[in-house]
Specification:
The complex is a heterodimer of chains A (547) and B (231). Chain A has three domains: 21-147, Jelly Rolls, CATH 2.60.120; 149-348, no CATH class; 369-544, Heat Shock Protein 90, CATH 3.30.565.10. Chain A contains 13 helices and 16 strands. Chain A has helices at residues 2-17, 145-179, 185-205, 217-242, 248-265, 270-294, 300-316, 319-368, 370-386, 388-408, 416-434, 455-466, 507-522, and strands spanning 22-26, 30-33, 50-61, 67-72, 76-81, 84-89, 105-110, 118-127, 139-144, 414-415, 437-443, 450-451, 474-483, 487-495, 526-533, 536-544. In chain A, the strands form four sheets. In chain A, strands 1, 2, 3, 5, 6 and 8 form a six-stranded antiparallel β-sheet that branches. Helices cover 29% and strands 36% of the residues of chain B. In chain B, helix 1 (10-24) links the parallel strand 1 and strand 2 (29-33). Chain B has a five-stranded parallel β-sheet, with helices on both faces. Chain B has a five-stranded antiparallel β-sheet with strand order 12-11-10-14-13, with no helix packed on it. In chain B, strands 15-16-17 form a three-stranded antiparallel β-sheet, covered by helices on one side. In chain B, 40% of the residues are buried. Chain B has two domains: 2-115, Response regulator (Rossmann fold, 3-Layer(aba) Sandwich); 141-230, Beta Barrel (OB fold (Dihydrolipoamide Acetyltransferase, E2P)), CATH 2.40.50.1020. Chain B has helices at residues 10-24, 36-45, 63-70, 86-91, 104-115, 170-176, 223-230, and strands at residues 2-6, 29-33, 50-53, 56-57, 60-61, 75-80, 96-99, 127-132, 135-140, 144-150, 153-158, 163-166, 181-185, 188-191, 195-201, 205-210, 215-218. Chain B is an alpha/beta fold and 231 residues long. Classes of the chains: A alpha+beta (547), B alpha/beta (231).
């Protein structure tokens, strides 16, 4: 919010400072090479000295402020005001001496006695031995000299604040990315965008304090062009990631092609290219934002508003600033989106903690839920009354199952052997209760493997519940393990006649527990299947390798 | 006498069977079922007198079967681990709820309830389940004005004037109904709220005038008790 206020003040300052304080008109420059005839173009002058003359007419100005001249031109030259030398820019070529390149923008003070309202002539005399093909016009601008110098300072002060903020943001997000256990691409992307934007700002305004020889004038513009290109790609990409956009690659590819086309078609028109880049980016972001709003994704509306606002501002402000304001608003939106996302992650984390403790409880409840405990106790009483010795064996089995439950209750993964022990104890108890023979078999168990606690136990419980007691013999449970190329698999086969399925089956809660446990430990990298087979029931748990 | 035991745990089923035999010792026929499906078949095909039902069978909720059972002529005793379901069970009109684990004493108490004729104390029945075509309808006890015995059935006379048939005998219902209901005649159970005046008619006949103007006979043996209660 503070940054937004800062920006608005900044805008006002710019608008007020842009007001022309000198009322003047200029003529088109007329050129002559080596004192030749006057002409309207300069041509490739090479080492020859050219002269460019611009007539200016000062209509009105504040006479208490010294007058300044701003000249935008390529070459190394001397500047004359009514034939009085104001200053030089670089050093022009002379026979036997190479040119020392001047810079593109220069400022000169006009002596007060020459700066009266009326007609004057500005003459630029110099050479442009390099980049002869570049025929940039000589542009003259008159302002109070102090303002000419102060304006860049004013702009710089705000731009540096902004750039600093983005630099800090970039560093912060890089650190966040490096130190986070989840290497999240959006975080990295955002860091890169902030860094690029910082560089863009610094480069764009470096013209005010670095004398770039005109021969290198376009290098800066080229870098700015590439940065704009990169940012124009990264921002929609970031939004796509943030809003879970489908067909990201296709969209991005089309987008890049459009940008490249813009670049090639308008090659050399740096400002236009950058503007078209940002427009394309804006349209792409808009598509994503509208889609996000339609899908009711959190943050979509904010993003849409931000984009509309940036468009509105862009319409009313000179392009040069418009671009940066657009970018800043969009990046602010992104920052906001990022906080929303962080909040969501935090909430998901809390939820997962909550789930873990709920699962712990669920596990503990398995042994104290009335159906298990009271039925077990009832059978136990009966055993003790009927045959105390067997009753004692029963009690010990029960105590051992409780023991195992107790040790595993706080774990999220336990050794497979412990799980098997739990199952065997449970079968022992159930055989006392149901007076059915239960037989446990295992195949190819890898003792080093782990598994979420009590999930096979839960499948076993279901197996006991849904199997008809056999007239003769035992109910067989067979646990087998298999390690395949990119997954491992547990299969529990119950060999018994299934009871007829009931509409209101209680499978739900048991399966929910298993699935929640698998989720907790393996994310989405698992598969759970349970279905009747010819001879009983087969449950398969597939744990996929981490991608 | 026929007793049906629906219980999925073999050990517990045998325990219940043993205790039931000990209690009733004479010509007793016990049928054991380990699933609701078998149990329901048995109920359809055998004329049983008493049902001992576990509420959670192989992971299935026994309340469905309970609703259809209580509409029948036999009495139902629940033997269940889910003690928190006791109140609900009573409101459906079961004779007793024996929580697991149980001993012989507790089970005998339930059987005593079954054997003792007349009213039981502290009944909480709120509904009577009535069979209608193929569905079960729950009649709120509050809507019953009086109940009339009609052979092996009973007629529930409701406040809105409707009459519903119930499969349980007047004797069986008497055990289930809350204290507000009084047996006033060998063929009538009356809700006290409906009673207006006790009338002595010529010839030593007694009758009860109800608030809606209906007249119900009062048994000679019941007269004293009822007069006492009215005063």
């Amino acid at each position: 919010m503070r940054r937004i206020i800062l920006f608005i003040t900044f805008l006002f300052l710019l608008l007020t400072s842009c007001k022309q304080d000198v009322d003047f008109t200029t003529s088109e420059p007329s050129y002559s090479v080596s004192n030749g005839p006057l002409r309207t173009y300069r041509g490739n002058t090479g080492d020859s000295i050219f002269k460019a003359k611009v007539d200016v007419n000062i209509l009105k100005r504040n006479l208490s402020e010294p007058l300044g001249v701003q000249i935008n031109a390529f070459g190394s030259f001397e500047v004359y005001w009514d034939n009085v030398l104001l200053g030089t820019n670089g050093q022009m070529a002379k026979p036997g001496r190479a040119e020392i390149y001047g810079t593109e923008t220069t400022f000169y003070q006009v002596p007060d006695e020459l700066a009266k309202p009326g007609k004057h002539a500005v003459t630029v005399v110099g050479t442009q031995s390099a980049m002869g093909d570049e025929e940039r016009n000589v542009n003259i601008k008159l302002r109070a000299y102090v303002r000419l110098l102060r304006e860049p300072l004013l702009i710089m002060s705000f731009v540096n604040i902004m750039a600093g903020a983005f630099l800090i943001a970039a560093i912060y997000y890089f650190f966040l990315f490096v130190n986070s256990s989840r290497k999240e691409i959006p975080v990295l992307l955002f860091g890169i965008i902030c860094l690029f934007f910082f560089t863009l700002l610094i480069l764009e305004y470096s013209k005010y304090y670095i004398d770039i020889p005109y021969t290198r004038f376009y290098i800066r513009l080229q870098i700015i062009g590439w940065l704009t290109f990169a940012i124009s790609i990264l921002i929609p990409w970031y939004f796509m990631l943030q809003f879970g956009f489908k067909k990201k690659r296709l969209f991005l590819l089309v987008f890049i092609i459009i940008l490249v086309v813009i670049y090639t078609v308008n090659y050399g028109h740096y400002d236009l290219t950058a503007m078209l880049f940002s427009y394309t980016m804006w349209v792409a972001s808009m598509i994503i934002a509208v889609k996000a709003v339609l899908q009711k994704i959190k943050g979509g509306l904010i993003m849409l508003c931000g984009l509309l606002l940036s468009a509105a501002i862009n319409k009313f402000v000179v392009y040069d600033f418009g671009l940066f304001i657009t970018f800043t608003i969009i990046i602010l939106c992104m920052l906001y989106l990022h906080t929303i996302r962080t909040k969501a992650i935090e909430e998901a984390h809390n939820a997962s903690l909550l789930l873990s403790s709920r699962l712990q409880l669920e596990l503990l409840k398995k042994n104290i839920q009335p159906h298990f405990l009271r039925n077990t106790l009832t059978s136990l009483i009966d055993w003790i009354e009927e045959s105390p010795k067997q009753g004692v064996v029963f009690i010990r089995a029960l105590a051992e199952e409780f023991d195992i439950m107790n040790t595993i209750s706080e774990e999220t993964l336990i050794p497979i052997r412990q799980e098997i022990e739990l199952c065997r104890k449970h079968l022992e108890i159930m055989s006392f209760r149901k007076e059915v023979c239960y037989n446990w078999e295992e195949k190819d168990i890898d003792e080093n493997e782990t598994i979420p606690p009590a999930i096979i136990h839960t499948i076993l419980e279901n197996g006991i519940t849904h199997s008809m007691p056999p007239k003769q013999g035992c109910i067989h449970f067979c646990l087998s393990y298999a390690k395949k190329e990119n997954y491992k698999q547990y299969e529990l086969l119950t060999l018994a006649e299934n009871r007829k399925p009931n509409k209101k089956s209680s499978n739900g809660t048991g399966f929910k527990y298993i699935k929640a446990r698998l989720n907790e430990s393996y994310g989405s990298n698992w598969n759970f299947e349970s279905h009747a087979t010819e001879h009983g029931w087969l449950t398969t748990i597939k744990i996929l390798d981490n991608k | 006498m026929k007793v049906l035991i629906i219980e999925d745990e073999a050990r517990i089923a045998r325990r219940i069977e043993r205790m039931t035999r000990n209690f009733f010792d004479k010509d007793l026929q016990i049928i054991l079922c380990d699933s609701i499906e078998n149990g329901q078949n048995c109920i359809e095909n055998e004329a049983i007198d008493l049902l001992l039902l576990d509420l959670n069978l192989n992971g299935e909720d026994g309340f469905d079967i309970l609703q259809s059972c209580v509409a029948k002529s036999f009495q139902t005793i629940i033997i269940s681990a889910y003690t928190d379901k006791a109140i609900t069970a009573f409101s459906y009109g079961v004779l007793d709820f024996v929580p697991k684990p149980f001993d012989e004493v507790r089970l005998s108490q339930a059987f005593m309830r079954f054997m003792t004729p007349g009213k039981q104390t502290g009944r909480d029945t709120q509904f009577l389940a009535v069979k209608k075509a193929k569905t079960i309808r729950l009649v709120n006890i509050k809507d019953i004005r009086y109940i009339k015995g009609a052979g092996i059935y009973t007629e529930l006379h409701l406040a809105d004037g409707h009459i519903e048939l119930h499969d349980k005998s007047l004797e069986a219902l008497e055990k289930l109904l809350p204290p507000i209901f009084e047996r006033i005649h060998k063929s009538y159970i009356l809700c006290w709220h409906e009673a207006d005046k006790l009338i002595v008619e010529a010839g030593g006949k007694y009758s009860m005038l109800l608030k809606n103007g209906e007249n119900l006979p009062v048994g000679r043996l019941k007269y004293k008790e009822i007069r006492h209660k009215l005063i």
